[in-house]
Amino acid sequence: MSEQGYQSPATPDRRLSTPEPQRAGSCKTPIQILYEHGVVSGDPPVFVMEKAEGEAHQPSFVFSVMIGGVKCTGAESS
């Protein structure tokens, strides 16, 4: 495979809007990727459980994460 026309950036772009592509066979979760980004950038993420509800056999959780001054909240549905 030729690398003509590809120029490596002088410094890697570490913004959240440009995540590193996952390699084939990579088993990292989005949480692992976010945490690794935070460690590299010097601003590790802070996770907070906002809400837990539902039956004991099928609980539902809402979490928020703050990294770099940005706060996001999400819930996973099963």
TrEMBL record:
Compartment list: Cytoplasm
Major location (coarse) = cytoplasm
Top-level taxonomic group: Eukaryota
Transmembrane feature ranges:
none
Per UniProt, the ranges with Polar residues bias are 1-10
Which PANTHER family does the UniProt entry name for this protein? INTERFERON-INDUCIBLE DOUBLE-STRANDED RNA-DEPENDENT PROTEIN KINASE ACTIVATOR A, LOQUACIOUS, ISOFORM B
**Could you tell me what this protein is called?**
DRBM domain-containing protein
